[in-house]
Every structure is written in structure tokens, then in C-alpha cells.
Amino acid sequence: MPSLLQWFEDWRRRRFARRLIAELAGAGMPGWRLDEAEDQLVHPSSLQVNLGNIRKEYHNAGFAQRRQLLRKYIAIARQLEVRPQKLWPLAAPRIYPVVRSAYLAALFELELRSTGKTPRAELSWPLAGDLCVQLVYDFGEHLSYVDRELAGTWGQSDAQLRETALANLATLPRASWVQRDDGVYQLASEASYEESLMLLPRVIAALPFADPVCIASNRGVLLAADGASPRAMLALIAAAAEARETLPWPLSFLPCRRRGEEWQALDAADPALPPPVGEALGNLRRQALIGCYASQKPLLDALHEHTGEDVFVANMQLLELREQPGQQQSWCVWTRGVPTLLPQTDLVALNRDADGAGNDFVLVSRDKLAPLLQQYGTTPPLLPPRVRVTGFPDDEQWQALQALRWNG
Q1: What angle do CA 144, 149, 155 make, to 5 degrees?
Q2: Which domain of life is it from (predicted)?
Q3: What are phi and psi of 73, to 5 degrees?
Q4: Axis-axis angle for helices 275-307, 230-246 (nearest 10)
Q5: Can you tell me the distance from the alpha carbon of 252 to that of 215, in angstroms, rounded to the nearest whole number?
Q6: Rounded CA gap, 244 and 102, in Å?
Q7: Which of the residues 24, 65, 346, 350 could staple to 61 if both were Cys, CB 3.0 to 4.6 A apart?
Q8: What angle do CA 131, 182, 98 make, to 5 degrees?
Q9: CA 93 from centre of chain
Q10: Is the Cα dihedral 77, 79, 81, 84 positive or negative?
């Protein structure tokens, strides 16, 4: 029986969907219905509107702003039937670069593959860590990702498309940094491209410190702090964690530092980071990754059911450290005789008891398992990454693992 809180959340979901369906019908677009399983509105013409993020945006807004948001959602639904211009002079002013997470793009591709559809080859290039830059076509109320089929109609090289997109981004109204009470700066802009404005050097140069560290936590959210200040860095990480929990359209929670003309991802294990900053950053990344892996698992399960592949998709789980309150380690299970896709975790619990009793296992740091993972595993093209293991340590290796047991 669902809890009262779950019942209320389900009621709010259905109420928002009914409200939006009524608004669409009143605007001359009848026929939409709610698909609760997929959490989206669907139309007989095959159009779809995903509800998760817009519902969060709507509920986060004040009552005075909700009517305007409904008008925006209606405009988005109208524009879903509009196609990008295929003549380059007409399309060029609408091309922009956007900062996104390669993990989210990979999840969308996996969702298509799991239903037997062929993913589109979208235009993108790496930025730092899991951040990438993708090209979009701006319809005004919503964005559409540019794939190579569409780009081919324009007759432009990748370099020309990128140059045009960056030039368009540079012509947007000038943004400004607003300092929050905790010392974190947040970019404010009228153009709704805040997270992507980190691609413009002049925007980063406007920050009042020489070592800027930024987090593009959500669409429309770019946070920054002084990388030379541990206090500011801790506040930045806390602000990103809050954004992950409360705001729609989460992107990445990877802090990046500007070095010359490039962005470099901060590694929580970097010994140059003050220990409290490294620990807080590690916890934030684990929390973000556990969400990505949780979204990835059902898609992989559906894909394996579609292809007939017999492989277990392991969960990523978190372990609170008794001796270090507030600190976490991530872990997963590798069981003998079970082909498994292991997520990237701090620890791996190896289980020799395939019957499920779990009485014969050892918990080992993933770093120390690297030679065995290389021997028994392969790395499929997945993001976030996993290792596919089909074997298991033999008796001699098992005895050696006892000496490597992790004890916290």
C-alpha cells in the first residue's frame, strides 16, 4: 500500500497532466492523453511531451508565474510539428552550442536502442569530464538537437557549424554574475543559455577571481566560485547538491577549472585539493552517479530482453563510513557464475556463493581489483561506464584477495 506522501505525489502528477491536457485542448490541440508508465503526454500523431522536468519547473514556480509557464508549454507543443529550416542562410541564425552531460545523451540513445529504434548521430564535441557540447536548433520556446542528417542538408563542415554556433552565442544579451550570500556566484541572463555561456571566455573573465571553478548543474544554471578558497569551493559543491535535488533539467555536477583556452575537470582524488573539498566533491559525484546508473539499469534490462542477452546489470549502492561520519563509498556486487555489468564504484563485493546466501564474499577496493577486471572483463561502449565480467577469480586468486580485503 503506497504511503501518504507517495499518494500525494501521484495525485499531483495526475493533476498537472490533466491541467496541461485541458489547456492544450482549449488552445485547439485536442487528443493528448497521459501515459503514466512513461510519464509523458502522447498524441495520436506520434508527438510526445515528457512531463518530469516541466512538472518540476511548474511546481517550483510561484502561482503568479504558472500561467506564463502553461503558455510556454502550449507553444512548445505547437512547435513540435515544425521542422528546422533546410536552407543554410535561414537556419544559420538559429544554431547554438549547448553544454550537456554525455551521460544524459548516452541514456537517451540507450532508450531508443532498448525499443528497437536507431539513434540519431548528433553533432557534439567533448568539453571536460562527462561534459560535452552539442549543437541545437533554437525554435524559440524549445530546442532541437542537430543530427548529421539535418546538418548534411546545410552543406557546412563541422568546424563551420561550430564557429557559427559560437558566434550566435556571443550575440546574446550580455549576462552578469550575481553573488549569493554563501560566496557562490550564479550567472544571470535573459537568454536562458546560462550553462552554455561558460563557452565564452569573456563571461568567465568577468568573475572577480583568478582561479574560477564552475559547475553547470542544470539547464539554465551556471555556478562559480574561487578555486583558491576552500570555503568557497565547499559552498559551490553544496549549491550544486541543492540544485540537483530541487531544480529541473539536471546536467552535470562536475566542477571544471579554466586553464588557458580549455576546461579541466576536477578529480575528487586530486591530492592538491584540500581534504574537506575532495571529500565533499566525491560525495556529490557519487550521488549524481547513483542516479545515472539507476536510470541506466532498466534501459539496459529492456535492451537485453530485446536482444536476448543474458547478463545481470548490477546496482551502484552507497555505504556510510562508521569512522568518518558524512563520508561515503560506493559499491556493487560481482557474483561467481553470473555474467554481470559492473558500474564504476569505489568498492566491489565479490561473492563466491552463487546460491544467494552470501556467506563467502570479500569486499575489495576497485583499484586493487584492476588486474582481475582486466583479465575477466571487457568494457562495452556505455556511459556512465561499466565493465562486463563473464568469469570469476580462481581459488588461488581468491586466497590472494583475502589479504586485500577492505576494512574501512
Answers
A1: 105
A2: Bacteria
A3: -65, -35
A4: 30
A5: 7
A6: 17
A7: 65
A8: 20
A9: 28
A10: negative
